[in-house]
Amino acid sequence: MTDPETTTHPAGILTDAEAETLTDPETDPDELTDLRARVQDRLSETLLDLSVLYPTLPAEEVETVFNPGEPGEQSAVRAATQDGLAVLVLGMLHGEDMVEMRLRDAIVNAGVSYGEDIDVTLELRRGPLPTVEEFAAQVDEDGLTEQTLPLFEYFLTQPDVDLSTLDAIIPDQQTDITEEEKAEI
């Protein structure tokens, strides 16, 4: 449970201070280990909460959360939803769960709850990540796409990746990123 005195948003899995601690590279490793253990417990409990909320929360209340009205808020909710889905899929991968079936069934069930019959065709191709050189060659051939952008972001955060390989492909991309933004990357 979050402490209302240490957060600027309602209770959630993290307080603002905990979110800051998790993203601060200067955080003491022991403090980080303790915090991650608490967050893991809360995430487990949150998953159980979702299994209660899904069948009981009225559709209007779900809509209020996912369609807040303000464009800036809606953008933040959509980004957070994508990250939440990524955490769930990552958990299923680590748990060696049936990812395709779970995603398909979740989409079908959500469609029924929304009043629609959704036919889902889902194909996941799984394999090892390419090397940064293989990735650069792919981007050189196909360009930076919606499918390759997550890999680009991944390679940017890997300490053993030669950033000059990524830097070489940035100028070739037609983007609306300014030179200052490129320098920050």
At a glance:
The protein has helices spanning 16-23, 29-56, 59-66, 71-94, 99-114, 132-142, 149-156, 163-169, 179-184.
Structure report:
- The protein has helices at residues 16-23, 29-56, 59-66, 71-94, 99-114, 132-142, 149-156, 163-169, 179-184.
- By secondary structure, the chain is mainly alpha-helical.
- The chain folds into two domains: 4-114, no CATH class; 132-184.
Round the Cα radius of gyration to an integer and report it. 20 Å
Number of domains: 2
The number of distinct β-strands equals 0
What is the average of the pLDDT values? 85
Jot down its keywords.
mainly alpha, 2 domains, 9 helices, globular
Q: Which helices and strands, and how do they pair?
A:
Layout lengths: L15 H8 L5 H28 L2 H8 L4 H24 L4 H16 L17 H11 L6 H8 L6 H7 L9 H6 L1
